[in-house]
Amino acid sequence: MSEIDSEAIAILGGTGDQGLGLALRFAAAGRRVVIGSRKLDRAVAAAAEVADKVPGANVEGFDNAEATQRARIVIVSVPFEHTAATVKGIKEHLAADQIVVSMAVPLAAAIGDGAMRTLGIWQGSCAELVAGLVPAGVHVISAFQNVSAHRLQHLPDEVDCDVIVSGAKAPREDVMALCGLVPGLRAINGGPLSNAKIVEEMTALLIGLNIRYKVPDGLGLRITGLPDDR
């Protein structure tokens, strides 16, 4: 098993739009980024793209299993319909005290319906589904569902968005700290993991708003009135 780097960030699905956007932003902030994919060649290609756009980036591409073993925080950035299979595929490679970040949303598009609606799932939310799949001692945190992939990838501009982060206190704070690496992102304490259901449903609402207001770059959320010492 590879040695876990406590400062590295693994992004499984870093070949997709949102995962690639996070990879670009974290690399631009100087963090080591490990991109994972089911197909090694796609992960290597995505890492090369990040390195091309962020000079001096510390980024590598591996298959999902290898990427999982190289970072304490593992962000799962795959569509809902692939989330369970992805988590099951890395389960035996996870170690106690690692943090798995769930980003997926159970959009009805997964079953051929519209993306403006969510599916009802037994666990309550995708994040809670993931929590039921990981080994004991691995923390699951919900975050980044509502951040525009386009705005993440456009490095010259700040990303005007709040990120609601839900889960147990200590790992939640570790993930909230990642938001500070991205100009314009602000982490919001979303409380327990059960609140992930609300945040995931807000994603469907934002998709509908993007369509109705014709905002191809993607809308973001801002929570107003928070004290500075939130």
Question: Could you characterize the architecture of this molecule?
Answer:
The chain is built from 8 helices and 8 strands. It is globular, with a radius of gyration of 16 Å. Helix 7 links the parallel strand 7 and strand 8 (185-189). A 6-stranded parallel beta sheet has the order 3-2-1-4-5-6, sandwiched between helices. Strands 7-8 form a two-stranded parallel ribbon. Helix 1 (17-28) packs across helix 2. It has 230 residues and is an alpha/beta fold. The protein has a single domain, classed as NAD(P)-binding Rossmann-like Domain (Rossmann fold), CATH 3.40.50.
Largest sheet: 6 strands, parallel
CATH architecture: 3-Layer(aba) Sandwich
The tally of strands reads: 8
Assembly type of the chains comes to: single chain
CATH topology: Rossmann fold
The number of domains is 1
Order of helices and strands: EHEHEHEHEHEHEHEH
Distance between the termini: 39 Å
Strand content: 15-25%
Counted by DSSP, the helix tally is 8
Q: Show unreliable segments.
A: none
- Give average pLDDT, whole number: 94
Q: What is the CATH H-level superfamily? A: NAD(P)-binding Rossmann-like Domain
Q: Taking Cα atoms only, what radius of gyration do you get, to the nearest Å?
A: 16 Å
Task: Report the structural category.
Answer: alpha/beta
Classified by CATH, the class is Alpha Beta
Helix content: 25-40%
Indicate the overall shape. Answer: globular
Strand line-up of the largest beta sheet? 3-2-1-4-5-6
